[in-house]
Design goal:
The complex is a heterodimer of chains A (about 190) and B (about 160). Chain A has helices at about 20-35, 75-95, 100-110, 175-180, 185-190; strands at about 120, 130-135, 140-145, 150-155, 165-170. Chain A has about 190 residues and is of the alpha+beta class. Chain A starts with 17 loop residues before the first helix and ends with a helix. Classes of the chains: A alpha+beta (about 190), B alpha+beta (about 160).
Chain lengths: ~190, ~160
């Protein structure tokens, strides 16, 4: 959509439109905040609801671009097929679809050499989510919000403990892997 | 309007899970994910996660499921599911694991200008975190419901359809 900027006339020639100035200031402020603190938990921006970057062509069910190095592997084919199925479902049910989120999910999954195929679903806000589980006590649930942010809920029962522990919040994908490892749940991700 | 709580721990609620909220495992079993239990307040009179009170209707389980399917006035796809939740297990578990006081409330709908059909079994689960304001807690609650509180799920479409 084109911004509502006044046309250049003799009286305002050379002045920067007010709308453009405000946009630049907001962009710089957000960038600084995000780079100075790597963990999004318990920060004000961790509580901000990130709306999906809705793909305006969500009606289009064209193939989903793969992010996998070996796009011909069974795993890559399964993931791509599932994403195409969800994209068709989004179209059918008139749900939003975030391309950012789909890209982030594929990038995360392609990071592991021998990954386990997760349950992949689409939320009502248009984000993709992946879930890995094992038995009653272990689960990894990740929702890819786009903008390099993942919302996680982890459930685990440490050996010898009676009570299951849980952890939830938001973090970057790299930080998520560290949190998963700290909770001894990496086995769920890889075969 | 004050909604009456459903104080019947052994009664069941049915939550509609659309196809995009479910996935099929390699062994062929279907999973209803947490995405089906995320609640975001959509209107001022939206008091919670929309469900149907299965045991509002008389008869055996199949008859009650049939009545719920009919009351929903929807045309579900073959992959849409109804996830069944037992009230007592749901409220106890969410309080113990997440400190949430959730209460199922009767919320019969229509017919009115917004919703043309009457659904006497419609209910809501109130007390869940709103995804618009606290989405990490909303996801945690939804994950706990999907993992621990779904006693079974059945096709949303009638087997006779």
């Amino acid at each position: 959509m084109r911004p509502n900027i006044a046309p250049q006339t003799e009286s305002n020639y050379g002045r920067r439109p007010v709308n453009a100035q405000m946009t630049s200031v907001a962009f710089v402020a957000i960038t600084l905040a995000a780079t100075s603190l790597p963990d999004y938990r318990n920060q004000w921006y961790g509580r901000v609801h990130l709306k999906p970057v809705t793909d305006s062509s969500s009606a289009n069910t064209a193939p989903v671009a793969t992010k996998f190095a070996d796009a011909t592997s069974d795993y890559a084919r399964q993931i791509t097929a599932r994403l195409m199925d969800l994209r068709a479902a989004a179209h059918e049910c008139q749900m939003p679809w975030s391309r950012d989120s789909a890209d982030a999910l594929q990038s995360f999954l392609s990071f592991f050499p021998k990954p386990n195929r997760p349950i992949i679903v689409l939320t009502d806000t248009g984000n993709l989510a992946a879930v890995w589980e094992s038995g009653r006590d272990s689960q990894i649930a990740l929702q890819f919000l786009g903008h390099d942010i993942v919302q996680y809920t982890l459930l685990a029962r440490p050996p010898g403990e009676q009570v299951r522990s849980s952890s939830n919040g938001r973090a970057t994908p790299a930080r998520i892997v560290k949190i998963i490892s700290d909770m001894d749940l990496l086995d769920l991700l890889t075969a | 309007m004050t909604l009456a709580p459903i104080m019947l721990p052994h009664h069941c609620l049915a939550r509609f899970a659309k196809r995009a909220h479910t996935d099929t495992k390699a062994d062929g079993s279907v999973v209803v994910s947490f995405a089906a239990f995320l609640w975001a307040k959509a209107a001022p009179d939206d008091h919670g996660l929309s469900v149907n009170w299965l045991d509002y209707f008389p008869g055996d389980k199949e008859a009650r499921l049939g009545a719920v399917r009919s009351s929903m006035h929807m045309t579900p796809g073959s992959k849409d599911r109804l996830a069944l939740l037992e009230i007592g297990q749901l409220t106890t578990h969410l309080y113990a694991t997440a400190g949430l006081n959730v209460v199922p409330l009767c919320d019969p709908t229509g017919p009115n200008a917004r919703y043309p059909y009457r659904n006497p079994s419609h209910a809501v689960i109130s007390g869940l975190p709103d995804e618009n304001y606290d989405s990490t807690r909303a996801q945690q609650a939804a994950t706990l419901i999907a993992k621990d509180c779904v006693i079974e799920h059945v096709p949303a479409r009638s087997p006779h359809a």
